[in-house]
Amino acid sequence: MDLSQETARKVAELQAKLDMRLGPEYISQRPGPGGGPKLTYAEGWKIINLANEVFGFNGWSSNVVSLSTDFIDFSEESRRYTVGVTAVVRVTLRDGVFHEDIGYGMLENSKSKGAALDKCKKEAVTDAIKRALRNFGNLLGNCLYDKAYAQEVVKIKVPPV
Predict the structure, then answer these.
(1) Residue 120's CB: how many other CB atoms inside 10 A?
(2) Mind giving me the DSSP string for 31-70?
(3) d(CA 14, CA 7)
(4) What does pLDDT average to in each consecutive run of 10 residues of the chain (161 residues)?
């Protein structure tokens, strides 16, 4: 088998993995904004672990392209901060293929400006990493954008670990 056939085999094997959908053990739900319908999502640490399994711990990397504080509001009345931060992150595979995406972090009613900024920056970067990774395929979260799939997969009971 020459190098090109071996490379093609590896790419096909990787693509087959990425085409699979997330199992129910990777999926969480939380109430929607303002008490709206539940939002279905995958936690950041689970998607990062999955990326490590799929690409190898040294087969991918991420870097923050930009991080900006959108607003810091201080309420004199409550003496608390509300903060919003946007991050753009690039996820690059070992072979140079990459995807970039945007993430957002927000915190309302924080006693501390520093703690609010810290939490928002981390949340924005994690959100951007998840969004960039989903561009590689269903297995890394893109399947959650299929509303029919998301509605069905959350009905599957996951046995406790």
Answers:
(1) 25
(2) PPGGG-SPEEE--HHHHHHHHHHHH-TTSEEEEEEEEEEE
(3) 11
(4) 79 94 94 88 97 96 98 98 98 96 97 98 98 97 94 85 65
- Rounded Cα distance, 50 and 67, in Å: 25
- Domain boundaries in the chain? 3-154
Is the model's pTM score more than 0.70? yes
Structure tokens belonging to residue 99: 């995807």
User: Is the distance from CB of 129 to CB of 89 less than 8 angstroms?
Assistant: yes
Written as six digits, the tokens of 111 are 């006693």
Sole residue written with tokens 């950041």: 44
Q: What is the pLDDT of residue 161?
A: 65
Task: Return the CATH number of the domain spanning residue range 3-154.
Answer: 3.30.390.80
Tokens representing residue 150 in the block: 């998301």
Among residues 139, 125, 130, 132, the alpha carbon closest in space to that of 54 is found at: 139
Task: Output the pLDDT for position 2.
Answer: 59
Contacts of 132 (CB under 8 A, 6+ apart): 62, 89, 90, 91, 99, 100, 101
